[in-house]
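Justification of resources, computational component.

The compute hours requested in this renewal are based largely on the per-chain cost of generating structure records like the one below. Each record pairs the submitted sequence with a full structure-token output. That output is archived, and it is also reused by downstream analysis tasks.
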Amino acid sequence: MRDAYHEDLDSLTDKLVEMTRLVRSAISRATTALLDADLQLAESVISRDEEVNRLFSEIEASIFDLMARQQPVAVDLRMIITSLRMGTDLERMGDLAEHVAKIARLRHPDSAIPPEVRSAILEMGQIAENLVTKAGSCVATRDVDSALELEQDDDAMDRLHRKLFKTILHKDWKYGVEPAIDITLIGRYYERYADHAVRVARDVVYLVTGSRPA
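The structure output for this chain reads:
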């Protein structure tokens, strides 16, 4: 009975790691769709968000079942609580990648990204991928040191987010209001995506140590 119980707990971790893989793929493809005005790729990101939602629903169902049947305590209870929190953050990351893809779809056949900010958006996409890759590794290995590093890794995303604002508010901005709104939204989506990755890592620290990072 206990072996089956711990297999169920291990399954939660496996599903969370799979969610990190899915949302990493989603943000990668959404970034490419945005920069290349690739409608087919954007549509694939939007349609495949259901896979992320399905996994999160499975995690929720498993957690409710485990809570009802096993009444977990101590480390097992922390595992269940953090799994729900991490699943929520990862599901939101999938939504944010979908939002990026929807802007790509909305502006097709044009690109929503003016030349002046293409490099910044590309870098934001790369940072987002790196953050969720690292977060997924932390979930799988419960590596506290790597999890604590994510907060510093996120600083680069915050700098790029501020850079976007400076660019669209500069007197030389020549693309008008609509592209400025698009860039504002896109920047916010990437910044929030990164924040959720950091929250996943912080939950790993809590799971292992029982304490939240300062």
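The chain has a mean pLDDT of 93. Residues 2-36 form the longest helix (35 residues).
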